[in-house]
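Support reply, case 0932

Customer input (verbatim):
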Amino acid sequence: MAKFTKQQVSEMCERIAPKHSFESKLIYAVCLQEGGKDKDGTFAPDMARLEQGFYRRYVEDNLELATTSEILLAASYGIMQMMGLSLKEAGYFEWYYGQCNDMKRMRLGSPLSQIAIPSAIDDYVINLDWMIEWGCRWMDKKRKLANGQTVRMLGLWNGDTSGKYANEVLNRYNNL
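Our regenerated output:
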């Protein structure tokens, strides 16, 4: 599985974050907060976290997908730990399907098939630029909901209303 150094992640944030009007240092701080790291200090984007409460609240009774696909959408992935459902809502799976050649699309069936979702997630966690790009796209939606307020935006990103998560990210940001 692909692994990325802090320098690679930082450089990708510098390249992609400004396209979405984000300061690269803030996006990198989110990556540092969220991205699982191996013992050698590299990012391990294939680490997934199942969010059982998220599954029950947002996925279980709200989607008409195969159970395995629903479970994949209730986990978070990659450098920024994007929720699978957030990737779906941001349009990632349709985008991914559109990137595939005709033969692969025929094999996948549809963007949200029980074959396409794991394939799209597997490719997502090995493409650093995709993880930062789609993370920035989703963060932009949160920024709009938060009326540009950074602390609120970070809380919406993480689902935290206490401010603890935002403080942790901003502490990382300030220490960069």
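We compared this against your earlier run and they match. Two observations from our side: The chain has a mean pLDDT of 92. The radius of gyration is 16 Å. Please reopen the case if you see a mismatch on your end.
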